[in-house]
């Protein structure tokens, strides 16, 4: 295994070990948690796709990729492979992306944008210039671009849609703060101060959702970043999202047991159903 692959795996372990015991949330609350909505039918044009499953976060190459091949236990759920977009500027080729998609039997490839996180990591990748998005036209599956908790802006959304990205995950601010995680992870006080300066940085999820929906009425939007429940999910759908996602909320359950994850997901589904019951269109649930 190469030095870089080891670094990626160690960093992922650091992140999980930090996120589990510590409070790594933005200190400013997600607006979705505060927002109240009337129970209304979402606009007809919104398609909702039910449950999607991430194939895990694939930052690694052949030896670890296979551990993300879970298609046999998830035969009919959309599976998404995931790499950092910046890796396209650091030698990851479209062919390797296709390999990842094939091994995982993924329905789409997510490229995540985490500029600020990379900038607050001493070892982070800083060359985001002219990101090679030619992978979009090369792959056999659609490309989804996802933020990581700092939100997608209008300008970025416009560029991504123009480049042929088929789905956007806004991943706005308000939940897990990667600047907070990197502050905990820092090994000296300067590094800690740099990361801490950005703990509340980002476009709040709700604002990002509205901005991106303004750019396109049709592009499927995944809303994430600070969502804790099916009630938050229903609010996000009402505000223009097609799908919603939660990360931090499920991590602690995942650390406890598989059955707790199932229970948490069942709870989210029931909350979503109840919130939308009166008008719940069949395509939502
Ligand atoms: C431990 C952990 C690891 C994560 N790793 C990735 C990753 O590799 N790729 C990615 O796109 N997002 C990753 N995320 C980010 C989430 O998908 C999400 O965008 C972000 O945490 C905001 O959502 P939340 O507030 O529900 O946590 C990770 C989240 C957690 C908690």
UniProtKB/TrEMBL annotation:
Biological process (GO), any one: isoprenoid biosynthetic process
One Gene Ontology MF term: isopentenyl-diphosphate delta-isomerase activity
SUPFAM superfamilies given in the database record: FMN-linked oxidoreductases
Cross-referenced Pfam families: FMN_dh
Co-factor(s): FMN
Classification via Gene3D superfamilies: Aldolase class I
Residues spanning the signal sequence: none
Keywords: Cytoplasm, Flavoprotein, FMN, Isomerase, Isoprene biosynthesis, Magnesium, Metal-binding, NADP
Residue stretches making up the FMN-dependent dehydrogenase domain: 125-277
Assembly mode: Homooctamer. Dimer of tetramers.
UniProt name for this protein: Isopentenyl-diphosphate delta-isomerase
Source species of the chain: Trichonephila inaurata madagascariensis
Encoding gene (name): fni
